[in-house]
Specification:
Layout (H helix, E strand, L loop, with lengths): L1 H13 L16 H36 L5 H65 L3 H6 L4 H74 L3 H39 L20 E3 L17 E4 L5 E3 L4 E7 L9 E5 L4 E6 L1 E4 L6 E2 L4 E5 L16 E8 L2 E3 L7
Antiparallel strand pairs: 1-2, 2-10, 3-9, 4-5, 4-8, 5-6, 6-10, 7-9, 10-11
Protein name: Peptidase M23B
GO molecular function, one term: metalloendopeptidase activity
Pfam family, one: Peptidase_M23
């Protein structure tokens, strides 16, 4: 009889069976708080959507006003709408900051829950290993002697199989929980980075808002609310703008001939791919797009560039290798300071509102070389007229014709 039981034991233990016990992951203790945070995050997202819709409405108003005749009253309406739009931009950024903070709290609570799961499973895993070790150390004769009938013996075999199954399930739970824990930690770091970026963006938008308000007040002071004086000012600005355009076009043709001659002599010195430009500043945040319909001065001249948010005095780098065709230095705030670089492949770039220029005309620069420092703060040297706050005006031209810089930037 004992031999039969021993044979049955060997057969049963050697027989492969599928796990029949599902090892449930314990529920975290922060579930209620996490659910509440999720509700708050969704409410913030809805609020942001509402604000962004209001911003879109103001952009339409600006575009509509732009189509009307050039007048001081109309320009004031454009500026008022622009100020309201930037105020909403600030409000939207504040909501995004609040949402990011809630997201960090939610992820932190999730990390706490997942840490508890890992620790709990480690305890269970250790207990299962200890118990299985004790059972495996028992001699077969001791096991057989402990049971009076086959039913009790079979139950014991099933119990051991359950321990082995639970051991595998617990180990898998620990492994998955740890992986999830690392993912959540990475998400927290990403949210913290986003939070810091939003904070910087908020400060830039507040500066932009104040710049819009200051410009409106200055425009009213300069024109003394006179339509005639405003039209005279606009006429003067258009003339100045056209002079700059003519200067850029004329110089570019002259320098390009020189560049082509040099390129034949020293081809290795030139950028292999000038059509792929690098960002001229560390910041990639755009405050005005190429031919932006919401550009507040579009009635006066087209915005053939992108404006990149940059604190006053930010280093400006060459977007590709080439020759400095023009380095327009200024000594007054009314003067527009800029650098133009002529590159191979028919490409040229213009960097406007510079507070300081550190490159000279006819100088060859390579991609990434510092050519000057950003400006555009109203009232500062080189800012030029009609600027509301610090930024870099960045143009790209293809065979002398302005093109969208974003088509050439990574």
């Amino acid at each position: 009889m004992r031999k039969v039981l021993l044979l049955c034991l060997i057969i049963i233990i050697g027989f492969s069976t599928e796990p029949f016990v599902a090892w449930g992951e314990p529920t975290g203790g922060n579930k209620q708080e996490i659910d509440e945070l999720n509700k708050q995050i969704e409410a913030k997202k809805k609020k942001i959507q509402e604000i962004e819709q209001a911003i879109a409405d103001y952009k339409k108003k600006i575009e509509q006003a732009r189509l009307e005749s050039v007048s001081l009253g109309n320009q004031m309406a454009i500026l008022d709408n622009r100020i309201a739009q930037v105020e909403l931009d600030v409000a939207a950024t504040l909501e995004k900051l609040a949402a990011a903070k809630l997201e960090i709290e939610r992820l932190t609570l999730g990390i706490e829950d997942k840490t508890r799961v890992v620790e709990r499973q480690k305890v269970i895993l250790a207990e299962l290993i200890r118990h299985l070790y004790q059972e495996n150390n028992k001699k077969q004769i001791e096991i057989l002697a402990a049971y009076d009938n086959f039913s009790d013996f079979y139950s014991r075999v099933q119990y051991l199989q359950k321990i082995e199954t639970d051991l595998g399930s617990s180990a898998k739970t620990v492994r998955l929980a740890r992986a999830d824990l690392e993912t959540k930690k990475s998400e927290v770091e990403a949210q913290r980075t986003a939070y810091e970026n939003l904070n910087r963006e908020l400060n830039q938008k507040k500066t932009e808002l104040q710049g819009q308000i200051n410009f409106k007040q200055k425009l009213l002071a300069d024109t003394q609310s006179s339509e005639l004086k405003y039209k005279t000012l606009v006429s003067s600005l258009k003339t100045q703008y056209q002079q700059i355009e003519n200067e850029i076009s004329g110089i570019e043709r002259e320098v390009r001939r020189k560049l082509e001659e040099e390129q034949k002599k020293k081809p290795e010195q030139f950028d292999e791919n000038s059509s792929a430009l690098s960002w001229p500043t560390q910041s990639h945040r755009i405050t005005a797009y190429f031919r932006d319909t919401s550009y507040p001065y579009r009635q006066i001249f087209e915005h053939n560039a992108i404006d990149i948010a940059a604190a006053h005095g930010t280093a400006v780098k060459a977007a590709a290798s080439g020759y400095i065709a023009r380095a327009k230095r200024c000594t007054t705030a009314a003067c527009y300071s800029y650098v133009m670089i002529v590159h191979s492949g028919g490409i040229s770039t213009v960097y406007g509102h510079l507070s300081r220029i550190s490159a000279d005309e006819d100088q060859f620069v390579t991609r990434g070389d510092i050519i000057g420092y950003s400006g555009a703060t109203p009232g500062t040297v080189g800012a030029g007229p009609f600027t509301t706050g610090p930024h870099l005006h960045f143009e790209v031209r293809k065979n002398g014709i302005p093109v969208n810089p974003l088509n050439y930037l990574p």
